[in-house]
Amino acid sequence: EVQLVESGGGLVQPGGSLKLSCAASGFTFSGSAMHWVRQASGKGLEWVGRIRSKANSYATAYAASVKGRFTISRDDSKNTAYLQMNSLKTEDTAVYYCTRPIRSGYYLFDYWGQGTLVTVSS
Amino acid sequence: EIVLTQSPATLSLSPGERATLSCRASQSVSSYLAWYQQKPGQAPRLLIYDASNRATGIPARFSGSGSGTDFTLTISSLEPEDFAVYYCQQRSNWPPLFGPGTKVDIK
Prior knowledge:
The complex is a heterodimer of chains A (122) and B (107).
Chain A: E1 3-7, E2 10-12, E3 18-25, E4 34-39, E5 45-51, E6 60-62, E7 70-75, E8 80-85, E9 94-101, E10 109-112, E11 116-120
Parallel strand pairs in A: 2-11
Antiparallel strand pairs in A: 1-3, 3-8, 4-5, 4-9, 5-6, 7-8, 9-10, 9-11
Chain B: E1 4-7, E2 10-13, E3 19-25, E4 33-38, E5 45-49, E6 53-54, E7 62-67, E8 70-75, E9 85-90, E10 97-98, E11 102-106
Parallel strand pairs in B: 2-11
Antiparallel strand pairs in B: 1-3, 3-8, 4-5, 4-9, 5-6, 7-8, 9-10, 9-11
């Protein structure tokens, strides 16, 4: 059974940093891209970014709203993906989900974690 | 950047009724449109991909249609567990983008 479990959310001040983790199981993590999607309270879904597999050079891509502030990485030995968030703004407050694409190279998500809440506030 | 518009914002129906949800793209996304269902406190669930293909385990009462700029999600007969928010998502152009959602609530 595919499982994705996020952790690391919490309260952080504007300008601060936070690192989220996504622990994966039930599939060949090393062969899969991993994506992050966020959702502000009562709002819609926003794609944040993705990291591809080693076979695709661990290539990353980001939404314009987070580019230069957020970094996605992975540790295939631990079956874990990470989202490092720096220079946080109040508008980054959201539930952050990690997701697995249905197929390599597809921006289509068939498995999601339960989400972790990030609150940016002074 | 493509803009997705969903209508109506809220759809109030009774169990057993037919639900028709619309998603319109500001430019063609070919058939690269998906639908997700999200219930309160839960992660989204993939229902339909590439306009008309049901994802694994999705009941046959859910169907999708359309191509280009106009898409429809139909729930043929609403079950109590179908009352939720539905999002469309395009993957034709980068970045992938979700629509604002349609809430289906109980009349």
